[in-house]
Every structure is written in C-alpha cells, then in structure tokens.
Specification:
Number of domains of chain A: 1
Structural class of chain B: alpha/beta
Largest interface: A-B, 19 and 26 residues
CATH architecture of the largest domain in chain B: 3-Layer(aba) Sandwich
Number of helices of chain A: 3
Largest sheet of chain B: 9 strands, mixed
Distance between the termini of chain A: 5 Å
CATH class of chain A: Mainly Alpha
Helix content of chain A: 40-55%
CATH superfamily of chain A: ACP-like
Number of helices of chain B: 20
CATH architecture of chain A: Orthogonal Bundle
Number of domains of chain B: 4
Shape of chain A: globular
Radius of gyration of chain B: 24 Å
Largest sheet of chain A: none
Structural class of chain A: mainly alpha
Shape of chain B: globular
CATH topology of the largest domain in chain B: Rossmann fold
Helix content of chain B: 25-40%
Order of helices and strands of chain A: HHH
Strand content of chain A: under 5%
Oligomer: heterodimer
Distance between the termini of chain B: 52 Å
Number of strands of chain B: 28
Chain lengths: 78, 540
C-alpha cells in the first residue's frame, strides 16, 4: 500500500519516489496545496476503488496518514 | 460583449437598486425561464429555473421571517447547495440577518461563531450534523433546521417543495443590517463584519457593471460560501444576467462540472489557477503531449496581436480542460503572479482582477487589463485615499462596523474612512496599486486571511513551547519556536526538538488547514522582547 501511495504522489508532484517516505508531510515536504490534496483524493479513489469523504483530507498531514486512511477502508484494494 | 462601456471598464446600461431584496426578486422575475442553478446529483444533471427559484426563495424566506422576524439572526452552515443558496437569498429578501459560518472550522470554533452571531436559528447541511448537535447542546434554545433530510422530515428542502404560506417581504432600508461575515482576528471567533443592505447593493451594482453575459452562459465558483467575494460576485451578480450558477462545492468533482456544464466564467483565487495549470500540464505529460501543448501555447502567445479568437483556436486543447467555453476569470483574494496571469492570458481567457476586503463588501477596485491598470479603477460607489501609505476607503460599500466591538470599529473607521491595513498607492491614471500589509496579517494563495498571533496563541497552550513567531514561507505557515527548557528538564524530556514537533502536530490536528504550521525552526536563544513584553517579530 505504501509503495503504491508513494508512486501516486511521486507521479503527481514530480518528486522522485525514493525521496518520499511515510513521514513526508503532504503540504510542508511535498509542496501540495490544500486544494491539490483534495484533488488527489480522486486519484486515490480511482486507484484503490474506494470513496473518500473530502472532510477526511483535513486529517491527512503525512504520507503515513494517507496509508492509514486507506487501510482503514475495508474495500480498499492494496 | 454587447453593453456600452464607460471609461473602458464599466458598462453603463444597467439598472440601479438600493434594496437587495427588490433586486433579487426583479432578477428572478426578468429571467424566469432560464436555468438559475445547475448541479450534478449522482452523475445526473439537475437544474432549477429562475421562476422556480422565485417561489422557493419566497417560501423559505417567509418561513424564516415568521420564525425570527425582520432583523432576527439566522446562521447558515454547510457547503454550497441549492438549499443553502435559497436560504441565503431568502434571508436577504425578507430582512433576516444572515451569518454564513465557515464549514471548515472545528465544531468548537463553529459553535463560538454561532454564539457570537446571536443567531436563534441554524440552517445546517446534514454533513455538519455533528456541529449542529454541539451547538444545540451549548445553546438549547436554538432552533436547528437541516437544509435537507433524507427521511422527508421538515427541512429547507421540504419548504422549497412544500406549501408554506408566502408572506409579503418587508421593506428594506439601506442602513438595515443584512449579514454578519466573519473575518480573521487575533483571538477567538475573529471579527464579525456587519454589512448593510446598502453595502451589499453597492458591491453588486459595481459587479454587474464589470461584466457582460448572456442568459445561456454559466458561472462556476467553488470558493467557500462564507466569503464576501463569493456572495457578491459568485451568487448575486450572475442573477442579473439570468445566467446559470454551477453548484460545485469541491475540486474533487470540478472536472465533471467542466465537462457537463462548460462554464464561461469562473471565480478564482491564485491557488485554484495554480492547480488548474498544474493539472493541464500534468495531463499533457501523462498523454505524452507535453511538447504539443507547449507548441500550442507558443502559437497562442504569438497570435495575441491578431486577436482572442486566433489565440483560443490555437489553444483549443487546453481550453477543452475547462469544457471549451471558458472566456473570463474573475480573480480576487490574493496576489496573482505575472506568470500565472500570462498563462491564461496567452490562451485567450480574459482576466478581471479586483481589490477588495470583507469590510468593503468586498469590491473596492477592479481592472479588465492587469498589464495596463494594476488593480483597476475605483468603484463608483466609493472613494479611496492613501493615508501614510495605507489604503483608506469611504462610501456606500463600507461596513456598518464590527459586531459587538465598538472599540475595533472606532479604530478601523476614523472620520468616515475605513483603514484597510493594506499599503498601496494610486497611479496617475487613478489605478490602485497594492504594496503589502501594514500589520502582520498573512494572506495565502487561497485568499484566506490568517492572523499569525492567533496561531501563536494556539501554540502557546503547549507547555513545551515557551515562545513562538508564526510567519509565511513559500505560501506555507512556518513557526520559529523557542522551547521551554525548564519544562523539558523538569519532565525528563531529552529530545526537546522532537517534543516540540509533536506538540505542533497535536495542535495542527485541532486546526483547519489554513492555520496549520507546516515548517518548524527551533531557536537556541529566546526572542528579544519589546518594552511591552511582546516578542520582537522581526527578530525571528
């Protein structure tokens, strides 16, 4: 799951995958804006076949938070 | 564009209203056959005509008028929806004072805003039911009404489709309080900006003179609906032209809205324009068409002297991202960099940029050409003067004052001039130029105002943090922090830096995105203090 998430983030931000870790901050380190974070939810929804409520984007501070959120959705395809 | 332009900027052939209620009713009656609002529901296109809106607004407005009376206070909570808009218009038409609350706040902060507004009735989106319950617990006398109810029970939606008796709207005076909008402050709920019927009218009368649209065109805005820019320009201006307002409350679904409704006008802040540009470039790269896109942009740029049509033709691929019809961006809220403006200008999208502030309802000036007139000509509804470098505004759009805060009102409005806190100048053409802020207020690319002192107050509740100074760094919030070493020692904390980071993380979790500290710099020495024992901010 973590590798897939990092791959999507790397593709979206043009930051090499090896520079992104579970502790990377979505906004502070990856340079995403709060709007981009919400836009990214649509990418995660497509990739993992889940539905993510926009309000949950508020909780996503690090890459680990994204992985935890996806793992908490039983139907998410790893 | 068909209207008659005055001073190359303003259209003269528009009516004039001093009652916002009369204006709304007249627009609805004049455009009754056109679609007023359009939206997607489970992927299906839905719409409501101006004629149907008139009936809906009368029913919901009559209910609110009956419930709280003219001058009674009602709060609105939730993202943009048909029911939210009908309720907002209903309040304005029936003289009910409306406070649109910030749906992004925590339940505690929302409840504080609600209490401060002295509202006795809350209309809330079901997605905010938790906040509504919290408000009800704190203020048991509050009447909480959902905007929609899945089981068909009483709600704004049931009023719209029901037969609640319509009463005659009361006469509105220019000085009547129309809305209380919250803007950032250093503590607590921030400041409640009181806008009168006349203030709202002045903003809208300027708005309808800036653009010219047809009833078969549509406007898309996803700006938060507690922002004065969104209310005046995104909701109240398009109804004059009978154009459709596209209800889209999230960037998650915006591409579907582009495809389905093909907007001709959009209301944007810099962060949105950056997002769209990035996505266009990323999509082209993903399809292996980055070079083709670059070529299209270059040709469009070269065709600029030939005219907009040629530019648009060369940039057809890029324009298709927005549905193909986008012709105008109305921009506000924060500074737009020149390269961002040029990207859209190159592909033949007209760029209207304004300067405004909530306290001025909000538009003070507006341009139609960034490259020749900075932030544009001053609204005919106000005057601007520069006092010690500060932009000061006087006129019909200047607020009544800050709600329940006469001291702050007296500080801001002196001799009839509202002191904006923005530094600027007027050039020889009378166009406004912005230089920055007089105080520490941070304005991010979302157009959100952030008081660093407010964030510092939140951080100061953590014992491991002795002093902090919050500031903007690359459009993010950064904090320079001096740890409380005595506390660390007394509690056996060895990794002080990690403890500070965890404390900031914990604080962040309780705050909306805009207030979160994303970068931390730990200081080895305490901050220098002023004679009044305040941290010297410049010495971070």
């Amino acid at each position: 799951m973590l590798e897939k998430v990092i791959h999507i983030l790397s593709d979206y931000t043009d930051i090499p995958a090896e520079s992104i870790t579970a502790d990377s901050r979505m906004i502070g380190d990856l340079g995403l804006s709060s709007l981009e974070l919400i836009s990214l939810l649509a990418e995660f929804e497509d990739e993992f076949s889940v539905s993510i409520d926009e309000s949950q984007a508020m909780e996503l501070q690090t890459v680990r938070d994204v992985v935890c959120l996806l793992e908490s959705i039983p139907t998410a395809k790893a | 564009m068909t209207g008659v332009l005055v001073n190359s900027v303003l259209y003269s052939d528009r009516g004039s209203w001093t009652s916002i209620g009369r204006y709304i009713f007249d627009c609805f009656e004049k455009n009754s056959a056109s679609d007023c609002c359009v939206w997607l529901e489970n992927g299906e296109r839905r719409s409501i005509s101006y004629g149907q809106m008139l009936e809906a607004v009368k029913r919901v407005g009559s209910y609110l008028f009956t419930a709280v009376g003219k001058g009674g206070h009602v709060a609105l909570l939730g993202k943009k929806s048909l029911e939210w808009i009908v309720s907002y218009f209903g309040c304005l038409c029936y003289g009910v004072v409306v406070s649109p609350l910030d749906a992004a706040l925590s339940r505690e902060e929302s409840a504080k805003q609600f209490r401060f507004s002295d509202s006795t009735l809350l209309l809330y989106d079901p997605a905010c039911a938790g906040i509504a319950e919290h408000i009800k617990e704190l203020c048991p006398d509050t009447h909480c009404v959902p905007l929609r109810a899945g089981d068909g029970s009483f709600s704004a939606a049931s009023l719209i489709g029901g037969d609640f008796p319509v009463s005659e709207a009361p006469e509105l005076k220019e000085d009547d309080l129309a809305e209380i909008l919250f803007t950032s402050g250093t503590t607590g709920v921030g400041k409640g900006v009181m806008l009168s019927v006349g203030n709202v009218c002045a903003a809208v009368m300027f708005g309808i003179r800036l653009v010219d649209c047809a009833s078969d065109e549509s406007l898309l805005s996803i700006l938060p609906n507690n922002h004065s820019f969104e209310l005046a320009v995104g909701l109240l201006t398009p109804i004059y032209f009978g154009m459709s307002i596209i209800l889209c409350s999230s960037v998650k679904t915006i591409k579907d809205c582009f495809r389905t409704f093909r907007p001709s006008i959009m209301l944007v802040v810099p962060s949105l324009m950056q997002l769209f540009r990035k996505e266009i470039l990323r999509e082209a790269k993903r399809r292996g068409e980055a070079e083709k896109l670059e070529q299209g942009l270059r040709i469009a740029r070269e065709l600029k002297p030939v005219g907009v049509d040629a530019q648009r033709s060369a940039a057809r691929e890029i324009l298709s991202y927005f549905g193909g019809r986008l012709k105008c961006l109305i921009c506000g809220g924060a500074f737009f960099s020149e390269d961002l403006v040029s990207f859209y200008d190159d592909i033949g999208i007209r760029f209207i940029e304004g300067y405004g502030i909530t306290e001025c309802a909000p538009i003070v000036s507006c341009n139609t050409d960034r490259f020749s007139c900075h932030l544009g000509v001053i609204s005919p509804y106000c005057e601007v003067r520069i006092e010690d470098g500060e932009i000061c505004v006087s006129g019909k759009n200047v607020m009544l004052g800050y709600y329940k805060n006469p001291e702050q009102t007296a500080r801001a409005i002196r001799d009839g001039w509202f002191h904006t806190g923005d530094l600027g100048a007027l050039d020889e053409q009378g166009c406004l130029i912005l230089h920055g802020r007089k105080d520490n207020l941070i304005i991010n690319s979302n157009g959100e105002n952030i008081s660093p002192e407010q964030v510092e107050n939140y951080l100061s509740t953590k014992e491991i943090i002795a002093q902090s100074v919050v500031y903007a760094e690359d459009d993010l919030l950064a904090a320079s922090i001096y740890p409380n070493l005595r506390f660390a020692e007394a509690n056996g904390i060895r990794d002080v830096e990690q403890a500070v980071r965890e404390a900031v993380e914990e604080t962040n979790k309780t705050l909306p995105h805009k207030l979160r500290v994303e970068r931390i710099h730990i200081r080895k020495e305490p901050f220098e203090m002023t004679s009044t024992m305040k941290v010297k901010r410049g010495k971070r």
